Amino acid sequence: MAIIFISSFVFTVDAYGSFAQTLASTVCCALVALLIAHVLNRRPGRNAFLVLLVAIGLGVRIGWILFNQAPPRSDFLFLYEAAREAASGKFDFAESAYFTSFPYQLGFTMYEAMIIRIFGDSLVALKVIGAAFNMGTAVILYFTGARLFNETCGRIASCFYAFYLPNILMCSVLTNQHLSVFLFFLGCSLLLKRRGSLLSWLWAGLAIGAGQLIRPIGVVYIVGIVLFAMLEVWKKLREGRRRKAWRQAGMLVAMIGIYAAIQWAANVSLHNAGVTQHALSDGDKYWKFMVGLNADANGGLEQRGCAVRERLCVRR
């Protein structure tokens, strides 16, 4: 959550062009969220709170989507056009330079294609479904906070997420972060709910594995879970509870196995369907480093960087 908040704040500063304006808007949103959480915490019960939270949060997001009908641009436009082709059964786009360089984008593209096949070629439908997943994350935060701490903490956390301005504004963009964050948080929530249940570990592996297909940062969550589980195993071994320690390690291995199986199944399915012959983990390994470390271009990939990238790809 801290990483998401910091990155969102930085992006908002860049959009506003003013640190003071961004800070002021963030504080105002925080105060509004606290006020809403305070009112909701004193008045309705759990079910009523969730209904109000989802109704207000989703209503605000849909209103913003209808008010700001921003057309997709750049990568979002490319992925959307590819999804439209995939929905009609054409997969020539997968051999374009973009998808051979970044094959991991195929996961989100196929997801968008599925939505288009079901609801038709509608940008509003794609954005509203993304907004629903965004609100789903707020609901997960509520249950997680209430379970780990108390009801008030759960309500405050969910309200902060639901009414944090960048989360609302991003709902008008065809981004992969809404679904992926929902799946990653769902996996973590399952583990926090029932750490001693093998079924929870398997479902967590499934959720995080699916999130990895949408946005390839699942390994970060896997590493965090591995470190957490290893501490649990070490603690149990020190206390002499060897059977429980090895059971914990076994559940961790099972979760990683499910996660890996999801990646393998996705690759095999795309290969057999004739979509691509590239693995989702293939592609350009240098681009993110070149962009992130390019201070002269303010984090952008300029012509000189493109030439270096081409030389590295040829050597590879």
Automatic annotation (TrEMBL):
GO cellular component term of the entry, any: plasma membrane
Localization of this protein: Cell membrane
Keywords attached to this entry: Cell membrane, Glycosyltransferase, Membrane, Transferase, Transmembrane, Transmembrane helix
Domain of life per record: Bacteria
Transmembrane feature ranges: 15-36, 48-67, 123-143, 163-186, 198-214, 249-266
Location, primary (coarse class): membrane
Short name of one Pfam family: PMT_2
Protein's GO biological process: lipopolysaccharide biosynthetic process; response to iron(III) ion
GO molecular function term, any single one: pentosyltransferase activity
Membrane topology designation: Multi-pass membrane protein
Domain Glycosyltransferase RgtA/B/C/D-like: 113-264
Listed name of the protein: Glycosyltransferase family 39 protein
